[in-house]
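ESCALATION

Customer reports they have been waiting on this structure for their group meeting. Please prioritize. Original submission:
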Amino acid sequence: MVKRCQWGLCNSDTRYPERLEGGIKFIPFPKPKSNLEKCRRWIKLCGRPHDQLNEKYADGNKHLYVCTKHFVEGIPTEKYPDPLPALLSPHTPYQTPARKLPKRRVLSEPPNKRRKVLFDVTELENSEIVPCSSPSIVDDSVLKANSVSSDTAQDVCPLDLLAIAAENHQLKQQLAQLLLANEESKRKDLDEVESNSTNKKSNIPLSIEILVNSKLKGSFKYYSGFSHERFMNINNFLVKDETLPFKPSVAVKCIKSMPVKDQLLLTLMKLRQNFDNIHLANLFHISSQDVSVIFSNWINFMFFHFGSVSIWPHRDVIIQNMPSKFKCDFPETMIILDGTEMKIQRPTALTTQSQMYSDYKSATTVKGLIGVDPRGSVTFISMLFSGAISDKAISSQSGLFDTMRKMIDCGMLKEGDGVMVDKGFNIREEIEMLGIRLVIPPNAPCEGQMPAADVAMTKKIAAHRVHVERAISRIKKFKILSNRIDLSIFSSINQIWFVCCFLTNFMGLLIRD
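Update from on-call: job pushed to the front of the queue and completed.
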């Protein structure tokens, strides 16, 4: 098995025995699973770029070593367990070794003649010694800086030079140890500061107060889809006091301990941003199972509570709040109808796939029917049907005609009122049987151009019918409906659809006169 040193530009390798002179041994690299802190410290001290030597690489590779040349005492000890820091910074790119220095030319002199170095020993002791590149040879700059005239020069013994070189080498080792200790203390201080800051942040779960006091403007509306004032209106509409307004289907401790407003915030965040349960669990410091229980209980409670409210106002109220331009063009039209489709995850059963497939969207979808008043508020919400259903079929199966018949019986509608639809709704016979007028764009003739009056009527209807499209776009801003709907929430998709449609009535007016 090949062993190779990972420290800096070291070339110690078992494949080349000449590089292992002096009894060099290889120390295994620490593993992140067992000692992550030591592994990170060794990566930093080795000075290797992060893309060449990182935690994942060290975790998966069993053959990473550092040779004993780079330890203060030759091997890891309790006092010096880590290697010396490499000269190459971890932030600089990896560099190849430079070419070898040229050999110093040897002067031709008699082999028996001893080389004499002339300088004042006392001046050498009092002067600052420049570190040498080699422990056994004194640099020429030192000799020139400390040289004196030949009259006062004295011969120096080579043993004195070796002692100075050994002392210089020892000072270098001490300096390296001090630098290493300094870096170690700085790293520990930074780790303590980061751990304290993260613990302070992570120990505070998300709540209404944190979003309200947040320095980021619009954070409350981003998460819930409503301003704080409108959120409180929804809360006051659903909850009379601070107690839980329903009995949980599953006994979970967090439902009793978690504030009611925070549970409503969690539900709206799931509807608006479609966060994963794990992400919501991390934000509110609960388990993902608790998030699922809270969301399912609240969405069912909101569905039944909103469903008990009549959102179709009296015709006098509609006419009183009708925009002036709409009142001028269609004064007796009380509702604008349109259908919308939402993509879902493809079912595994082929029969279900064929029922859910929509030719219009070229995907498996579910379809719902929406009705808005001339001001843009939602007044009719159907349940969801398969994407293959037609507009005429969904109008009859959604209970629209029965609802309008009841409105006529109780005086909220009267015969002669209008219903505005698109060309795809071939429901003229059913609507006229109720005594209600159908406002629909005229069909183009088979031959020739459309008459000028029909063109003007088509433009006029399109200018007002676009508001139902705007209302549908409001509903689809809840990302749980705009994203591809997962089959895991299919059991409560009707409740989610109805609640999202109803919540748009808590927003501002869609059409301002």
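Sent to customer with the following note: The radius of gyration is 41 Å.
Escalation resolved.
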